[in-house]
Amino acid sequence: MALSLRRKQLDVIVRMLHLNQQQLPNGGEGQGEEEAYKLLVMDPPCVSLLSPVLKVGDLRRHGVTLTLGIDRPRQAVPDAPAVYLVRPTPSNVDRIAADAAAGLYASFHVNFSTSVPRPVLERLATACAAAPPACAGRVARVADQYIDFVCLEEGLFSLAQPRAYVALNDPAAADADITSLVDAVALGLFCVFATLGVVPVIRCARGGPAEMVAAALDARLRDHLLAKPNLFTEAASAAVASFQRPVLCLFDRNFELSVGVQHDWSYRPLVHDVLGLKLNKLKLPAEKYELDDSDKFWVINSWSPFPKVAEEIEAQLAKYKQDVDEVNQRTGGGSGVEFDGTDLIGNTRHLMNAVNSLPELTERKKIIDKHTNIATALLGHIKERSLDGYCDCENDMLVNGTVDRNTLLSLLRGKGTKEDKLRLAVTYLLSFETPPSSELEQVEAALRESEVDMSAFQYVKRIKALNTQFAAASGTTTKSNIVDWAEKLYGQSLGAVTAGVKNLLSDGRQLALTRTVEALMEGKPSPEVDDYLLFDPRAPRSGTGGQFKGPFREAVVFMIGGGNYIEYRSLMELEQRTQPSKHVIYGATEILSGAEFIHQLAELGQKAGLGGGSSNIPPD
After folding, report:
1. Degrees, nearest 5: CA angle 400-406-410
2. What pLDDT is recorded for position 578?
3. Coiled-coil intervals in this record (predicted)?
4. Distance in angstroms (rounded) separating the CA atoms of residues 549 and 249
5. CB contact at 8 A, 534 and 565
6. Angle, in degrees to the nearest 10, between helices 512-522 and 565-577
7. pLDDT band, residue 524 (cuts 50/70/90)
8. What is the CA radius of gyration of the chain?
């Protein structure tokens, strides 16, 4: 039985929509005969977490007739109950108390997306107590739901915490700000494991944000486990019976920087990077599309290289036309042929089959048209920006460790956005430990010719140089001085920045992240992970003995500072090729495109006083 994050989050949401009944009508499939229709009131973050798992039709099936924003003016519907799903903030509880005092709805079922701090809960209680007597009576229930994460699909989630990479690496960041962000990430991960109903074994590299988040999550889980019963009590016996505990592998974005900026040639990463896929929704100038597991073409083809996707669209269109012609031939009669009774019955049967096949044919045509439009839009960008050239050049550098200087420089001076050129240049920087100085100068000159802001490039160049110095330093004092300097200038986590192609990619394009996760799941001694820290919230604090290091059948891999579809695909491939089979869920503080991540690097470069070039990269 594999961990099923999306299914379990959906179960919690459905129960909430049915007013937290333990026995749901129709097994949770839809509206019961006796159940009242209701309104759903949410804040923007909760709209984001709900939209990938429930569509408007699904909400109606669960009795929700109207979905409203908590920050918008709303009319009273005094005879209907209202379900609130919001983050536990002072402004949200003030609005809830005001709504209850005004009697906007018949009853108030208040659900917080995560653990509500005691001062916020007391604020709600005080406001309701100060209101007219009927106010408190209208609040039927207040519940913590622990679903404050966006589950994009069964194996992919985001904590929707923007710009975490900048916040953690900002040289001017206050300790209190970093601690606050680390606590927010730990709370988001606590929600994930509370929803799954399992307590993980936590592994991470020493130092930097990964260790800080691991320690904060370990402390939060330990504190929670002291209470009996707790969120993990019910699932504990089932977990022992059905599967062992999972391992949570925590990484910092600096662990493998190049994956965050590189271009990719697969359909799904291209749609995300080039067309701006967000929350499984795609907005083109003339159309809006949903791209999720209800779209079988997307499920089957989204990891294929773009040219293969184009071929598959052509093949499906040809098959569709053939099937339509076949239906027309069967139902169009036989010209010049006399029918007896048998032929008439046969023809009627063909007609009935044709009528029955119409919905399926219509749906197929709709999917074909949808992906034709998406592929056409992609093709326009590919031609306009020479994206195939960028992908080939980066692939040569990252996988083969080679670069054709003329190709590299012509791309930097030719087609493509400023972000494209900067991403290529940063990939070049990260692919070679010591690129020839003359070649490096030519790359920088080409960027300046194209009026590209150099902040991101100079930032990566500087932290790579610091990392090389750190690796080369022999004396403890020198190492300490370099680390202190790095931390003062560039933030907390620079010791983890990798440099050189050996650490970035290896056999079969397997990412360093995937290699490390595989080693952590196997639990065998390995130079790559022997110095990784282990936190076990269920083990006594003092003892080091008896800690379980694997093997693990299931893992949650979390990237602090932004994840991407390239890493997600690599981990899915790990699942598919291992025997016995492993199950991996991938999550991140946010899912970023290469262009979005390069903006964060540029912002850090500017904060550190680096940069140059005659034109800034425009913000998103």
Report:
1. 110
2. 82
3. none
4. 12
5. no
6. 40
7. confident
8. 28
**Could you give the CA distance from residue 33 to residue 570 in angstroms, rounded to a whole number?**
47
Q: At 324, which amino acid appears?
A: V
DSSP string covering 579-610 = SS--EEEEEESSB--HHHHHHHHHHHHHHTT-
C-alpha–C-alpha distance, residues 236 and 610, integer Å: 52
DSSP H/E element including 389: helix 387-395
| Per-residue model confidence (pLDDT) at position 355 | 63
pLDDT digits (tens, 9 = 90+) for 113-125: 999 999 999 999 9
Residue 505 bridge partners (DSSP): 511
Write down the pLDDT at residue 614.
41
Let me know: does 138 contact 106? Beta carbons within 8 Å. Answer: yes
Task: For residue 506, count CB atoms less than 10 angstroms from its CB and return exposed for 0-12, middle for 13-18, buried for 19 or more.
Answer: middle
What's the burial of 17, exposed, middle or buried (CB within 10 Å: 0-12/13-18/19+)? buried
Q: What CA–CA distance (Å, rounded) separates 90 from 125? A: 12
Which residues, at least 6 apart from 94, have a Cβ–Cβ distance to it below 8 Å? Answer: 123, 127
The pTM of this model reads 0.88
* CA separation for the pair 486, 495 (Å, rounded): 8
Q: Which of 320, 279, 225, 258 minimizes the C-alpha distance to 537?
A: 225
Q: Any idea how long the chain is? A: 620
Contact 84, 110 (CB under 8 A): yes
How far is it, in rounded angstroms, from Cα 579 to Cα 518? 12
- The pLDDT assigned to 212 comes to 95
Q: Which residue has the tokens 């202190």?
A: 484
Q: Select from 114, 174, 125, 197 the least CA-distant residue to 150.
A: 114
Burial 66-96 (b: 16+ CB within 10 A, else e): bebebeeebeebeebbbbbbbbbeeebbebb
**Cβ neighbour number for residue 525 with a 10 Å cutoff:** 9
Interatomic CA distance for residues 620 and 608, integer angstroms: 21
Sign of the alpha-carbon torsion through 533, 539, 540, 543: negative
Output the pLDDT for position 192. 96
Environment class of 101 (CB within 10 Å of its CB; exposed 0-12, middle 13-18, buried 19+): middle
What are the pLDDT digits (tens) for 8-41? 999 999 999 998 876 655 555 555 444 568 999 9
Q: What secondary structure letter does DSSP report for 172?
A: T
Residue tagged 């972000």 (tokens): 419
Q: Would you give the distance in Å from CA 101 to the centre of its chain?
A: 39
To the nearest 10 degrees (0 to 180), the angle between helices 341-385 and 306-331 is: 160
* Three-class DSSP labels, 208-236: HHHHHHHHHHHHHHHHHHCCCCCCCHHHH
Mean pLDDT of 172-198: 94
Give which of 575, 602, 440 is closest to 156, Cα–Cα. Answer: 575
| Residue tagged 């209701």 (tokens) | 38
CA distance 175 to 172: 9
User: What is the C-alpha separation between 556 and 266, in angstroms, rounded?
Assistant: 24
**Position with higher pLDDT, 110 vs 475:** 110
Q: Which two tokens stand for residue 20?
A: 């937290």
